[in-house]
Design brief:
- By secondary structure, this protein is mainly beta.
- 12% of the residues lie in helices and 44% in strands.
Length: 200
């Protein structure tokens, strides 16, 4: 489990097609980021929970199945692209964001970007209608692994605000209109809707 508080920004240094069903991505992190990580450890990369299969120096290698590549932004990522990184939450760790699993529900597209003072407001269009019930104003959503508060919801469009520290410490500081982001809805909202459906 994760919190959506991005710990570092890494960079893709290699993409390899192992076979038709599996791909390998090598990520370089900041100095020391992977030092205490072991093979098999879970790292959230751009909002996707992945396991380390190999590591050397400041890099870690992850294998991803083809369906995950197709259903997330990994299908659009290439060598040189930046990705948000977060290590899994230890049992005694602080939960500063919200419960994030790294299980992406779908993708969203940035359709608008504007500056409001020091804040950047982004409008994200989510085409998958099955996800819409989980979006509420002042609720939480994870975009590319970043825990964010929804400012407002109008149909399939979410508005989120990026404060300066989020702009500086995540990949959102360089996002542009037309870019896609991984979307994970709030797990508590999912459980709530599930319980409600069972008792109808």
């Amino acid at each position: 489990m994760f919190t959506g508080i991005v710990a570092a920004v890494g960079r893709i240094t290699a993409v390899e097609e192992i076979d038709r069903q599996n791909y390998a991505y090598t990520i370089q992190g900041p100095t020391g980021f992977f030092d205490d990580s072991r093979l098999g450890d879970s790292i959230m990369v751009a909002g996707v929970c992945l396991s380390i299969v190999d590591k050397s120096d400041q890099q870690a290698r992850f294998e991803i199945m083809a369906p995950t590549v197709a259903q997330t932004t990994f299908g659009n990522l290439a060598v040189g692209d930046r990705v948000n990184l977060e290590k899994s939450l230890p049992l005694t760790g602080r939960l500063d964001g919200h419960f994030v699993l790294g299980h992406v529900d779908g993708r969203g597209k940035i359709i608008s970007q504007k500056k409001v003072g020091q804040t950047i407001e982004l409008e994200i269009q989510v085409e998958d209608e099955s996800l819409w019930p989980y979006f509420v104003s002042k609720g939480s959503v994870a975009l590319d692994g970043t825990s964010l508060t929804i400012v407002r919801v109008v149909g399939p469009v979410l508005t989120i605000g990026l404060i300066p520290i989020t702009q500086a410490n995540t990949t959102f500081g360089t996002k542009q209109v037309g870019d896609f982001v991984n979307v994970e809805t709030d797990i508590l909202a999912k459980y709530s809707q599930r319980q409600e459906a069972l008792h109808v």
